Backbone:
């Protein structure tokens, strides 16, 4: 039945994509995050949905069929992404032999960087920004809604394990946390009441899904992200009270197993799972010291013979004592050490530059918006929401292997696209319809 | 339940794409459904007055 529904969907979506480059691009983005293949079990399971829409979108954009499209522009974010792709190519080429996920992770990263590089050519006005935000929210929100409703329906007994695409419960918690700011943006700026209601509801259910994962890191980064959003909101007092109320309500209503798990945050030194992570960080940094320019290749540290080579080393973390050294290969468990081990110091430097650039671009947007007056508050709010999500990522993923998570790169480029649009609008006359084609249409 | 949610999600994506296709019609965008966005939602600033004033 599921396969037939998805087949029917393809009969509708493929012609729509062929008729419109932007529609094809949005479908490319949506299929990248919704992972349709995980929800069908028959003949549609092996269909490369993402690849189909990617090919259609690239062809239409390449042939110039998008009437509202723009030419490729080399922005700062684009340069950083291209450098990251080049470094990834070098690392993948010089990877340790037997690194199982090297090619898979490399091609996935390259595909996502290509998607991001095309974004300024397709997402050329506010309507399309709104559409992309909706497409990403629909893709990611589906996972959180599905798991969050199970958590509610079971009265808090359902332990959210996550979705295969993202990894374990901790990865899932962070992945869905990053969608909350966009849902709140949609709640605030959508005109359709149903969309507003749905966005707010999915945001609430997403919080429940994060609680359901029992992830300490997930809850911590969600709380910090909430605090950052409250500090940057226009009604700071109300937002802080709301946040405090939300945290108190979550703690009061969460199941006892969750509270017990959260209490272990204080016992870091005795926490084996944390100390094993430190060993993985030491091994990853030692690998980077041994191969500073290329790194070991994508997830090389999970290669048993590479792990055996480095697991007794202290790398850059010799000042942290670790008595226990696991025999079995362990994932890097930190985006920073993951990139450091995979791509060496050069890769880490570019990766950190991508993260820092998000906040620099946000600052540029805020400056332009404040100079332009109240007409661009939507852009200010969206840039704040994107920055909040990236901040959650920076904090939450410090202990997770999630460096090649698509949504991060989408947000980084969306911030750049926003800056480009704000610059165009700020530099053009107030009623210039071409600069902001859909604004004022309603 | 998961399947029902997936169907709703797919339908919402369809409405989104329909809005994008409609937005490029030569005789004007008309009602774009899910894609309709609000102009700036502003909190009146007591010192400066309404931002668009």
Residues:
């Amino acid at each position: 039945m599921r396969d037939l529904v998805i087949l029917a969907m393809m009969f509708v979506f493929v012609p729509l994509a062929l008729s419109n480059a932007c529609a094809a691009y949005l479908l490319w983005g949506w299929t990248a995050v919704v992972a349709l293949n995980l929800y069908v079990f028959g003949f549609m399971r092996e269909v490369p949905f993402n690849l189909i829409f990617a090919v259609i979108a690239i062809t239409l954009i390449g042939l110039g069929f998008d009437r509202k499209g723009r030419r490729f522009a080399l922005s700062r974010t684009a340069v950083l992404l291209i450098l990251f792709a080049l470094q990834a190519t070098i690392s993948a080429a010089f990877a340790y032999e037997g690194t199982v996920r090297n090619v898979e992770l490399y091609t996935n990263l390259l595909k996502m960087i290509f998607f991001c590089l095309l974004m300024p050519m397709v997402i050329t006005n506010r309507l399309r920004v709104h559409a992309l935000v909706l497409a990403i929210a629909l893709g990611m929100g589906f996972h959180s809604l599905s798991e969050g409703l199970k958590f509610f329906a079971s009265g808090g007994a359902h332990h959210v394990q996550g979705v295969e695409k993202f990894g374990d419960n901790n990865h899932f918690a962070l992945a869905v946390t990053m969608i909350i700011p966009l849902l709140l943006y949609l709640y605030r700026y959508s005109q359709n009441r149903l969309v507003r209601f749905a966005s707010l509801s999915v945001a609430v259910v997403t919080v429940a899904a994060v609680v359901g994962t029992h992830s300490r890191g997930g809850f911590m980064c969600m709380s910090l992200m909430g605090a950052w959003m409250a500090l940057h909101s226009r009604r700071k007092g109300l937002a802080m009270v709301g946040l405090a109320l939300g945290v108190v309500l979550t703690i009061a209503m969460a199941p006892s197993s969750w509270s017990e798990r959260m209490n272990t945050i204080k016992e870091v030194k005795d926490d084996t799972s944390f100390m094993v992570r430190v060993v993985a960080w030491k091994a990853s940094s030692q690998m980077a010291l041994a191969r500073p320019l290329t790194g070991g290749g994508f997830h090389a540290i999970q290669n048993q013979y590479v792990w055996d080579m480095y697991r007794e080393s202290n790398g850059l973390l010799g000042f942290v004592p670790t008595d226990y050294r696991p025999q079995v290969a362990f994932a890097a468990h930190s985006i920073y050490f993951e990139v450091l081990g995979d791509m060496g110091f050069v890769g880490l430097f570019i990766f950190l530059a991508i993260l820092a650039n998000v906040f620099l671009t946000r600052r540029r947007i805020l400056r332009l918006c404040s100079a332009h007056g109240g007409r661009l508050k939507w852009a200010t709010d969206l840039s704040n929401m994107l920055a909040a999500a990236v901040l959650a990522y920076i904090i939450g993923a410090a202990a997770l292997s999630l460096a090649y998570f698509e949504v991060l790169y989408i947000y980084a480029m969306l911030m750049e696209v926003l800056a480009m649009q704000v610059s165009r609008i700020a530099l053009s006359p107030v009623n210039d319809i071409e600069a902001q084609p859909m604004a004022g249409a309603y | 339940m998961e399947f029902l949610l997936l169907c709703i999600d797919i339908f919402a994506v369809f409405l989104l794409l329909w809005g994008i296709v409609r937005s490029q019609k030569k005789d004007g965008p008309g009602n774009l459904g899910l894609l309709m966005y609000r102009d700036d939602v502003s909190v009146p600033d007591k010192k400066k007055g309404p931002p668009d004033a």
User: Anything to note?
Assistant: Residues 2-23 of chain B form the longest helix (22 residues). The CA atoms of residues 41 and 51 of chain B lie 10 Å apart. Chain B is about 40% helix and 0% strand. Chain B has a mean pLDDT of 74.
